[in-house]
Amino acid sequence: MAVNSLLRCIRLLRKRVATHLAQQRALSGAEAVTALRPFYFAVHPDFFGQHPVEREVNETSLKRLNSYLDHLQKPGSHSVRPMKLTFYVRDTKDSSDVQPDLLASGFRSVSFTLHTYDVLSTVWNVLKSCSLPIEHMKDLKTSVETSKRPPEGGGLSTDLFDGIRATTASLDSKTLSRSCSRPGGWSPLSCCLWLRNNEPEATKKNTASLPLREELNRLKNELSRKLDLSDIRWQRSWGVAHRCSQLQSLSRLSQQDPGALRNLRGHTVMFADQSGLNASGHIMLGTMDVHQQWTKMFQQLPSYHSLLQQSDWLKERISLLLGGTQVVHKERLGPIQPITEHYSTLNTFHKSLISHRLRLHPRSMQGLSMSLENDRINPSLHEMGYFIIPATCDPPKLQVFLQSHAPEARQRTQRRNQLQAEEAAVVKLCLHNLSLSSLSKEPSLSSSQMIMCCNRLVEQRAPLMQGLHICVSQFYSVMQDGDLCVPWDWKS
């Protein structure tokens, strides 16, 4: 009895010490944003206007970092999963030393894995990994009252992107004017004036890229026919020359070892950051991998297909349990979800559902959809009308959430369909009236933003855009192949 009593005392003491240390090391959301200020200046996506790949990577990594910090606010944050992040870092006056590993673009590529259990350690890790100063952290208040801790699932009191906006808003006028005048940066010029200044350069680059564009289309069509592919896509906005070299590499492999590519028939091939099969069933070819790695992955496709079939079966079972709600996979920027991870998420969620008897009418949620996320805490309703559900969501709470938000979800879904139809019509009108070669938008832009931008372009009838490739974005830029990026909210 005495031994048991002693053990209980030791466990209680350990618990109190751990709680005390956690409180001492706690950091509020506002303090985290302040501490990460040098980091924002070094990785802010708006400073990467002429480098769309790096910009996309930073934008996605910031969102994932924000999600990681949100997880740390949840009680029991010891269960947070390690997260690997990659950032392209600008050299600023805040860099702790000169880095020898600069890329040709002038940025440093920094990759690190977060495996921390509190906000303070996470912020410290991020700054250290990016070789940014940490002296200012010593002045931060590193302890808060337990009562000030956000409620469960409340997330950070200040979102990372709010912090970025607040940080850039506080830039002095000289810094702002320097960043605005940089090629590819945001510009205060009107759209007409900017086009007048940059159309000659865009036309020259576009003309020079025409032979490569023709070769790209030829290779894509030839490989699609030869390998019987459904489509060929790219994860990132690589240049025309880069995409051509990727297709040429696949073409060489098809000539050297045609039997190895037999399993590609009927599939969509996507050139991506890693090789494998993604959650949508697309075959990913890592652009940094060699032919031997591609061939090895092709041999594993039958087992991947088995996982894909099991994933589809799990989606059907989940839909039956949730009143007809369809599980969909939303492709996002950044790391693509492999089929192995997707299957694991579905399987975990399905097991959780069948352990409870939910009372949802079989067709009460018909026509609605949901996306399962591993890095979420609370369920939410996206502005486009689909539910975003944490894979570890409590089933009874999920039922209440779905039922209470179903009417709003139907309204948003209907609105989304209307906007998408309107967007397709106005893009077609814009292409015709302005005689554009192509018109696209960044994935981060909504249909409403695209519609507003296109309507204004049609009204203005800018002749300087004829024959060019236009991408509606967040910034002005002339890309390496002559594509013009125009901000969706451009000034008249």
Automatic annotation (TrEMBL):
Residues 194-491 form the DUF4461 domain. This is T-cell activation inhibitor, mitochondrial. Pfam families: DUF4460, DUF4461. Residues 23-132 form the DUF4460 domain. One of its GO terms (cellular component) is mitochondrion.
